Task: structure prediction
Amino acid sequence: MEDYEQSLNPIWLCGTRPLIDMAKNHVNMLFINLDDSVAWHSHPEISLAHSWTHEQLRAQLAKIRKAGIEPIPMFNFFYDT
Result:
């Protein structure tokens, strides 16, 4: 169960190892879905259980940029799962 919960945590998804692998494979852009994945001050009720704080988001963006990857925010995109 812990692995499943960890897989839902967006911070785990942007760990150092995946970023290193992306950079080695010449990935230069990373789309990040920010709708309910960030604890917005204006609407905290729409946040998921493991949402990033603003500080965590800034730290992850810095890590992504340091790897030479451009973070691209996604808002209000429809996708079918």
Q: What stands out?
A: The beta strands are 29-33, 70-74. Residues 1-8 have pLDDT under 50 and may be disordered. The longest strand covers residues 29-33. Helices lie at 2-8, 10-13, 16-24, 54-66.
